[in-house]
Structure formats: C-alpha cells, structure tokens
Amino acid sequence: MVNLLLLEPDQDFANRIIEGLNSTRTKFNVLHIHNMQEVYSHKSHFNTIALFILNLANPLDVRIELFIRENGGYNAPILLLLEKALVSFELFRTLHYIDRYHDITIKDSLIEPVVHRIFKLCNIWNDDIFFISKSIYFDFKNSLFVFNESLIKLGKKETLLLKLLCIKSPHYVTHNEIAHFVYQDELTNNEKIRALIKIIRKKLPINLIESVKFHGYKIRGDLTILTSLNEYNTKCLTKLRFDD
C-alpha cells in the first residue's frame, strides 16, 4: 500500500487522480485534503506518506514544505501541481532557483501526465522486469520479451506500451493513456495504436494482450503479472497450499 497526501481544492480533479491511481496493480491510499489548514491538522500522518502532491495558492511560499520536513515527512518527494493561470517563465525560473520540489506539473484537463509523475516519484514506473512465469517475462530495460529460451527484441514504442500494460494489469489501459505514455508529444490516433498492438501480438509467441471494447487494452485476464521471482514463488506456494 502506497500512502499519498493530495492537497487539491478541486474535488472532481482529485477524484480523477485517485481513479487513475486505483486502476493499477499497486494499491494507493490517498489522503485528500482541500486546504492548507487541513495539511497542518494531519501532521501526525506525515511519516507514513510516500509522496506529497500539492496544489498551492502561492507555489513560492516554502512554509508548507518546511512544515512537512519538520513534522515527519523528511525524505518523501513533493510533486507541485500548478494552476494554468499561474504559469509564467518567471515563476518557473524562481521555482528552479529555490529548488524545493522534486517535480512540477501543470494542471490540465488530462489526468495522465499527473498520474505518470506520481508513478515515477513512487518508483512504480521504475520496475524493469515483469514475470508471467520463471521462464516467461518482459525485460523493459533491455526491450526484451523472454519466452523460455527465445529472446524477442522489441521496439521503443512496443516496449513502452508493454510496460504500461504490465503496470496497469489487471486493469485496462485507455487510448488516452497510451497516447501520453507511449507517443508522448507525437500526434497519434486509435489507428496507430491498433497497428502498434498488432505488431506486438505478431512478435510475441504468447497471446498476451486482449482488447477491451470501447476502452482500450489489457493483459489477458487469466495471467498475473509479477515484478520479482520472490513474488512469483510466493504466489506458487500460496496456490499449492490452497490446492492441498
């Protein structure tokens, strides 16, 4: 369970962040608060928080960061959410100079950039190997899909898409998420995404990806993606006990 503190006055935007986070294989517990006074009243929880996500009326006011550091949130990263109306070159230059935040993102209608940054700051995006079994796994760092003794080399976009699918498993990945995570600043459409899925399916010797009508794609429902052999071995032992 990953504990987050989210300071966001906009309830709808906060709900969308929480929904985006809860559609991954990692479990998040989000303490959503609406104003600065609530931040102060929750200081007893700071030592359990893995990431502070703050939408501040005045991003240059460092008192909240100092308060977090002095009350248990010693090493947890801080992600600053910036309202579009506040954005300026001068603000970014000053924020860079004071260097108080681990990452900054501009609040937009799309939720994917925020969720992506949360993944990275919580080290969720940093998983490199995803196991289906001991001999079948996806090696993100080396862009390889290993199937028994066969090594299948993947292209950059194929690798990014497969990683996104693994991270989100057992939930589905939307077309918007693929557009942001895989294509980033490139223009794309559903046809391009379908073509990329087709390439991956053709390369892999296992039926790994299934379509979710009107939504996107997901790792096949009967497969469990694990991020370590220890996790895989634990799963096998649990199954053996259950079978006994």
TrEMBL record:
PROSITE patterns: OMPR_PHOB. GO terms for biological process: phosphorelay signal transduction system; regulation of DNA-templated transcription. The keyword Metal-binding does not apply. One of its GO terms (molecular function) is DNA binding. Residues 127-221 form the OmpR/PhoB-type domain. It holds the Pfam family Trans_reg_C. Residues 127-221 bind DNA. Keywords: DNA-binding. The keyword Transcription does not apply. This is Putative transcriptional regulator. It comes from Sulfurospirillum halorespirans DSM 13726.
